[in-house]
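JOB MANIFEST
job_type = single_chain_structure
chain_count = 1
residues = 87
[input]
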Amino acid sequence: PATITEVDSAYCPQCLSFHDATTAANLGYCPKATCRLCPLCQSVAAVAVEDATCFYKCGRCDWNSKTCFLQTFVSTSDDGNVSLEEV
């Protein structure tokens, strides 16, 4: 017997936000700026900070955005505020 499954909404496994079926079907990914996927294996790319450098890093295949120069530097002011510097 044939079965049909209808999807009325979808969610992002990284941020757990729900999206309607039209948005999910048209985009195919989460539209939020904080949700990024690894370009090599399509796993979740997390934001990592090492030695005052902020970049994306994949925990599955070990790709990181520093290889394509997509990174920024983190600085802390005397009053404890953190800011990102343009590269």
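[summary]
The longest helix spans residues 21-27.
The beta strands are 9-11, 18-20, 45-50, 53-58, 71-76, 82-85.
exit_status = 0
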